[in-house]
Design goal:
The complex is a heterotrimer. By secondary structure, chain B is an alpha/beta fold. Chain B has 17 helices and 22 strands. In chain B, helix 8 runs parallel beside helix 11. By secondary structure, chain C is an alpha/beta fold. Chain C has one domain: Barwin-like endoglucanases. Classes of the chains: A alpha/beta, B alpha/beta, C alpha/beta.
Chain lengths: 558, 429, 126
């Protein structure tokens, strides 16, 4: 099967193609230099980009499903009947797996990272990914509130820690290391929380030690992605200082191919003020740091004003939110490993704090000069459902549109946010970087054919029916919400905004090789943990091959 | 041959440490399991072959005929009900949901007659909970309310709660307090430190009284609530507040009695409020080994956990309207497919009287009262013994069921898959 | 004939669980066609341990074997969940899908009739 995408205006930032009129050739599932007898897709006057790559979106697993179960009222939104090819769809902030796959594909996305899987529940995440059509995917394993991790960090046995990280990533078929409020969930096991320099109860380590230890192990294993961190103190006034301290923990480390820390949904971590009354944006400080340094990349975690469902592995945070709103609250602590919570949330344009949060995400994208350092996310569904990406993009590209929104929200935005003073408008090249090239590179997936259209890359392509000169928000939004074409693995999956094929997605997982001696010692310790403390047997713990029917195994060497 | 780390496919405790000895494709010994688990794994009378009822008598037939007859009944039905699912794999659940979607059927699960009301309560107020290992390692106060786990989940206490020594509970049983609340002095009470007898149907006011005392409003509480003295209630609240880590397990004592989901809303609210004082969590004692799994799969595939009606094309969820007992009591459906459950024994008389009037298809390894009502009977292999696949423990931890011996029958997943193909064939798709 | 009013509670027992997937057996009948009552309630009815009782409500009736259980408070009749208990319980779901498996008002009296087998119970609904 061959395709020729003819005369499109191509944005392929990894290959430094910036809005050139050119052809893209596809053979089977790869991009090639020429084709003989192709089916021709006329892309004249249309935008052509690599398939979108979402670096951080909670789409599958125990927490997400607990969110769906908690919110049948959300499930009723967006309900669609079965089609000839498609299964039923439900939900807005907590869509079912089918809606997740179809809606992302319709927006031209072809890869999504599920960023927070408790290893004990990894089978569940993979089961949902099997039922999530079209999208290639991967998962990050939560390894920071983990007893084995904390004990090795405390004892300074870094090689055993690296052996453990390697074993866990392989055992649960994960792609990388996730850190969420390090130490916080262990403390939450007793109803408490910690900040970066507090000692974790009973374990005598600080979150700082955990971050540093996991970063060292991550680099020792030469994993494709860096540590991926949700910093301590999320959502609290004045937390930008904790955020900068967290960035600083790994400033002495480096990697030739990429950053050594990816900090996620930094919008939620860029707050100033001493309380809710003087809550303010500190994006100036965060942007100053990120602009000056090379070791850290971030994603936005944009908030959109409206109703959504918050869900994170940060157990104490969700309880705190529930105490603010009084709305229903689910919590799930996971033995020896992590935790999690869920509560619905309305970001209201009438509330000063929510309005400033909305501004902060945009400020990050506009004040960080180099778009390669910031990926576009809403931390779906925490800041907003992923389906709002076209609106976020239209705001980033149009200053006047931002002004219209600001005129109709809480006036605090004028004093305690920076957005009103920002004139920058992003162009399509910036957007192509933030939505595909940068996330692919930050994840290390560019080396495996994602995020670009060079010869040999995966034939994942998005074609949007909008002129490169277009700035009108409505037109941009409509074009991005319903791609003219989405091609996934060389197959046209979306045409004219409708699903026309439903291939199954592939799961990327890393198989890290590591020193046998350390692994043997580590397994001795791990066996003890299972015999004494886990509620399942070690033999039943690793995720069986049946849960990853379309694997892409990436082997790494020390 | 000795097989270790086997999962027991019976109750929601989903023990995964069973040792099974197999000889010539026959299980000859089962170790570590409770009496119920041993009984299940050693085996019972099976349905030998597919059967179709003719002139009132079930007559043996082939899988092909039985599956074709099933498709015929389902395709001719205007409002089919597909019910059961708690004793089979998530892989079968997926096929079943696809079949229901394709038919525009109602799909429901045994949760609607066990913890369905708990799910409704969670949808009202949420569920602060945890995995069972968290309790094993941390809990120092364990409360069973309306749950006779000694009879229903016999190893729950020894594996997960009162007895094991954990990381922060090195003393084991001695370091933990166990309190039971029930309308009868059940066998669970024998291993408890304290028993509080609640009058039948009075759980709601007792929970309300506890919440009032916790909120510092004990002056509004009368001297006796639901058969429990005010002193006893105050003492229990003190115990809860002074625990380091408390857990409230609740059973069908709350969901089956007066108040139903409201009882559970009140219990969850109490636990939620306790979190202002200490760490406290709550967990429903899910019955079948994979009832939780069905609710999980149905939720991620349709957005809703049980009682999903596809007759409008898109899913419609409204327990009370779309739940199996209600549909039968209203005499609304015109065919029922029952799989991996036994409504013939477990539904009220009124519901099965109506089942007797309409075509019933049964897919199950075992003959049971539903067989007596069935027009088509399709025997299946036993999930977790003859078929591998996924099951979710009561705390939503997914574990893979093992296949221990070779089956002589088709798996539930395979049967449903063939039914689905036949349905499509008959509809000319 | 003497009668007492009871709240009918249905629920799990190990024996009933052991035969849950073996329901056509005599063992299941022995395990589940049982009504546990307090000794005083039994004496009041003139029933001995192991004798048959009729349990009757507005919704149906069934004959099962009586068994003494003094851990049962007076006024509560316990029948293991299953085919016999469900002849008597209130099928109304209160609009939430769940019949009244615990707490249906019933009356218990001595019976000289035999306990119906599963086959007989199912014939009865056809």
């Amino acid at each position: 099967m061959e395709l020729l995408i003819k005369n499109g205006v191509v944005y392929d930032p990894i290959n430094e193609i910036r809005g050139e009129k050119m052809d893209i050739c596809v053979k089977e599932d790869k991009i090639v230099s020429k084709v003989k007898n192709p089916k021709v897709i006329d892309a004249n006057g249309k935008l052509v980009m690599p398939g979108g790559v979402d670096i951080h979106s909670h789409i599958a697993g125990g927490k997400i499903n607990a969110g769906r179960l908690l919110r049948p009222e959300d499930g009723r939104k967006g309900a669609e009947p079965r089609g000839k090819l498609t299964r039923v769809c439900t939900g807005y902030s907590v869509p079912n797996t089918y809606a997740t796959g179809y809606r992302y594909a319709k927006m031209g996305y072809t890869f999504v990272m599920e960023p927070a899987t408790p290893p004990l529940l990894a089978r569940h995440t993979h089961e949902e990914l099997i039922d999530t059509p079209i999208l290639d995917n991967a998962i990050l394993a939560l390894l920071d509130n983990n007893w084995m991790t904390m004990e090795y960090v405390k004892s300074g046995e870094t090689k055993k820690l690296a052996a453990y990280v390697a074993w866990m990533i392989k055992a649960v078929k994960a792609y990388g290391v996730k850190i969420v409020n390090p130490g916080g969930d262990e403390a939450w096991g007793w109803g408490k929380n910690v900040n970066i320099d507090d000692s974790v109860p009973n374990f005598d380590v600080t979150p700082r030690d955990i971050i540093d230890g996991l970063a060292e192990a991550n680099e020792m294993l030469n994993l494709p992605h860096s540590i991926h961190i949700h910093c301590n103190d999320l959502g609290h006034p004045g937390n930008y200082e904790t955020t900068l301290k967290s960035f600083d923990v790994v400033k002495g480390r480096s990697n030739a191919n990429r950053q050594v820390m990816h900090a996620t949904h930094v919008q939620f971590h860029s707050y100033g003020g001493s309380g809710w009354k003087d809550f303010e944006s500190k994006v100036d400080e965060i942007a100053k740091y990120v602009n000056a340094k090379k070791h850290v990349t971030i994603d936005m975690g944009q908030v959109m004003l409206g109703d959504t469902t918050t869900m994170t592995a940060d157990g104490p945070l969700e309880y705190g939110l529930h105490m603010i709103t009084g709305r229903k609250w689910t919590n799930l602590d996971v033995e020896l490993e992590t935790g999690g919570g869920i509560t619905p949330f309305l970001y209201s344009s009438k509330v000063a704090v929510n309005t400033i949060q909305w501004a902060i995400g945009l400020e990050l994208a506009l004040l960080i000069k180099d778009p390669w350092k910031i990926a576009l996310t809403t931390d779906h569904p925490n800041g907003a459902p992923f389906i709002t990406y076209p609106i976020v993009i239209s705001l980033l590209m149009n200053k006047q549109k931002r002004g219209e929104v600001m005129a109709n929200v809480h006036k605090a935005i004028n004093k305690r946010a920076i957005l009103p003073s920002i004139g920058r408008e992003l162009d399509w090249n910036d957007i192509a970087i933030m939505t595909r090239a940068a996330p692919a590179r930050i994840l290390g997936l560019d080396r495996y054919g994602k995020g670009h259209l060079g010869v040999g890359a995966d034939a994942d392509v998005a074609i949007y029916d909008v002129s490169p000169e277009e700035r009108e928000s409505k037109k941009i939004q409509s074009a991005l919400l319903h791609a003219k074409y989405t091609i996934k693995g060389g197959e046209v999956v979306v045409r004219d905004g409708e699903i026309v094929a439903v291939p199954e997605g592939r799961t990327y997982w890393v198989n890290p090789e590591f020193d046998g001696e350390s692994t043997k010692d580590m397994l001795g310790d791990l066996t003890g943990k299972f015999e004494k403390y886990y509620s399942v047997n070690l033999a039943n713990y690793p995720v069986q091959d049946a849960y990853v029917p379309h694997p892409v195994e990436i082997k790494t060497k020390v | 041959m000795i097989i270790t780390d086997v999962l027991c496919p019976f109750c929601g405790a989903l023990c995964d440490d069973i040792v099974v000895e197999v000889e010539k494709n026959k299980i000859i010994e089962v170790r570590e399991a409770c009496e119920i688990g041993v009984s299940k794994m050693m085996g019972h009378e099976r349905i030998a072959t597919p059967m179709i009822r003719e002139n009132g008598e079930l007559k043996e037939t082939t899988y092909e005929n039985a599956i074709d007859k099933t498709a015929e009944i389902l395709v001719n039905s205007l409002r089919p009900l597909i019910y059961g699912w708690s004793s089979t794999t998530c892989e079968a659940h997926r096929k079943g949901i696809e079949l229901a979607e394709e038919l525009g059927a109602v799909i429901d699960n045994t949760a609607s007659v066990c913890h369905g009301p708990s799910i409704l309560a969670i949808q009202n107020v949420g569920l602060p909970s945890c995995t069972l290992g968290q309790i094993k390692n941390r809990a120092d106060l364990i409360i069973y309310w309306g749950s006779n786990q000694a009879e229903a989940h016999p190893r729950h206490m020894s594996r997960y709660t009162s007895f094991p020594r954990g990381f922060f509970s090195e003393e084991g049983r001695r370091g933990k307090k166990v309190v039971v609340l029930d309308v009868r002095k059940t066998t669970t009470v024998e291993v408890a430190d304290d028993f509080i007898q609640v009058a039948p149907g009075e759980d709601y006011p007792v929970l309300s009284a506890l919440r009032a005392i916790l909120a510092g409003e004990e002056n509004v509480v009368p001297s006796c609530v639901g058969g429990v003295s005010k002193e006893k209630l105050i003492e229990l609240v003190e115990k809860m507040k002074s625990a380091r880590f408390g857990i409230l397990f609740f059973g069908l004592g709350l969901t089956h009695s007066r108040g139903r989901y409201n009882n559970v809303v009140n219990a969850i609210s109490l636990v939620r409020e306790l979190n202002a004082h200490t760490k406290f969590v709550i967990m429903p004692m899910r019955g079948h080994y994979n009832v939780t799994g069905f609710n999980q799969v149905c939720t991620w595939e349709t957005g809703f956990p049980f009682a999903v009606d596809f007759s409008r094309g898109q899913p419609w969820y409204n327990p009370g309207e779309t739940s199996a007992v209600d549909i039968l009591n209203r005499e609304e459906c015109d065919a029922v497919l029952v799989i991996a459950s036994d409504p013939g024994a477990h539904f009220p008389k009124k519901s099965i009287e109506f089942m007797a009037k309409i075509p019933v298809i049964q897919i199950d390894p075992y003959p049971n009262p539903t067989t007596e009502l069935a027009d088509v009977v399709i025997p299946s292999a036993i999930a977790g013994i003859e078929v591998e696949g996924t099951a979710y423990r009561m705390d939503k931890v997914p574990i893979r069921l093992r296949k221990i011996i070779e089956p002589n029958h088709l798996s539930d997943e395979e049967i449903l898959s063939r039914v689905l193909n036949k349905v499509r064939e008959r509809r000319g798709e | 004939m003497k009668k007492i009013d009871v709240k009918l509670i249905t629920g799990r027992l190990v024996e009933q669980g052991i035969h849950l997937e073996n329901k056509m057996s005599d063992e299941y009948l022995k395990a589940a066609a049982v009504c546990e009552l307090n000794e005083r309630d039994m004496a009041g009815l003139g029933i001995r341990d192991g004798g048959n009782v009729r349990v009757k409500s507005r919704f149906g009736e069934v004959v099962v074997r009586a068994r003494i259980n003094n851990d049962n408070p007076a006024g509560i009749a316990f029948i293991p969940m299953g085919a016999w208990a469900n002849r008597v319980i209130d099928p109304d779901t209160g609009g939430c899908g769940m019949p009244h498996y615990k707490g249906t008002d019933a009356e218990v009296s001595l019976s000289y009739e035999s306990i119906p087998t599963i086959k007989e119970l199912m014939e009865d609904v056809k």
